[in-house]
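Morning - arginine inputs below, output right after.
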Amino acid sequence: MYRKPGFGDQPDWIREYTSSLEFDRKIYSAVVLTALAHLFHLWEKGLIPEEAGSALKCLVEALDKEDEVLSGEFEDVHEALEAWLLDKAGKHAGWLAYGKSRNDQVSTALRLALRKEIIRLLWEINRLRGTLLGKAERNLNVLIPAFTHLRPAQPSTVAHYLLHVEREVSVHWRTLWYLLREVIDLSPLGSGPVAGSSVPLDRGRLAELLGFSGVEENTIFATGSRTFASLVLGSIASLAVALSRVAEDLIVWSTSQFSIVRLPDRHVSTSSIMPQKRNPVTLEIIRAVAGDILGSLTSFLTITKGIPSGYNLDLQEANNHIFGPLEKIINAIKVMADLIDDIEFREVRDIQLLAQDVAERLVKERGIAYREAHSLLAKALRENGWDLKKAVESLDMELPGFEEAINSRGRGGPNPERMSKEISSRRKLLRDDIGRLTEFESLKLSAERELVERVRRTLERKHIE
Ligand code: ARG
């Protein structure tokens, strides 16, 4: 039996049914820091007695006592922490709840924990960007087909392909970076349960103590909305889908039928019965992870779609779908970067890919409209068993060379000279992004350390034991 404060007994199985204790481990230190910021603020503003400072000291200790704090039978980490504090600091613990609700606190802790995870993700994306650019640079002139409908379409290069992947991942980097600074990094603390409190809290100061760049103003939004998480999940899901398509390309290209790439040995497994098999197992997991993450996004959005405004316990259930996808996308990116670094491309010079170039040459040489040139070449191809070389001869023309074709390509195409410039400008952007991220991360990490230090220093100054 669990004694619910003020409500008597509740059978354990019912308490467990509504409990978030297991999930709360993921946000434990963020919850303690949030509590610490709140109590410290009450104290520095003189809103609570000076002796209550002893509870602050215990809260700092709680940062390293996760197992002990969460060992009891409670509804959630907030109750557990308050009970633990009551045990350590006696009646002073009672001030923690003054002007603070679990609703503004959990929303704050989730943002703090997400902030850390998104920074980790952004670092991983940056590493992948660097790997892609390096590999592209080493393969500027290696010809492979560009595909449409999974049929070879036009001549392209490895660099051209890899730069498209780099664009896919860096566009997600920009989206997540925006969400991190403009949405996640705003503080809900001080919003109370939904519409504030009469306690004269300075929300700007609370935000500052936790290293947030600003305040999430509206208290209904701050406590009851989880849009900050659904936007992150949405862009993670979109990134996972992009990676899944790359995985699919490489799986197909590594088949003996295509044989455009050879996957590194450490990324393939053999069959337990067919010794010739080199199965692309890591890529298959990446492809599956996208499905998994889409499932989490669907769960999250579906759980939240029917909830009235303000906090409802459904939100606690939605929490279960936030951090798993982050871990999964981070691992998928790590694996993809490792694979790209060592993958081998085999040059493909398939003459059929030059058909469009031939038709365009017909336009230039004979002054006919493109539709006419297209029909002429199509007819010649049909009459020559779809052999482009013979078709071109039958038209009294010469086949263009691959280099000539590639070099004639305009902006955004595989022209190696343009690709090389493009790689330089993508590298510059990556360097700038690394600089921005380094600065942001150290600012946020130092803010957390600074809060603990500030509390310690102030307590010492006031000789509070
Ligand atoms: N444990 C909850 C969560 O993780 C926070 C508690 C809010 N509970 C409530 N009844 N208002 O979302």
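Note: The mean pLDDT is 96.

O.
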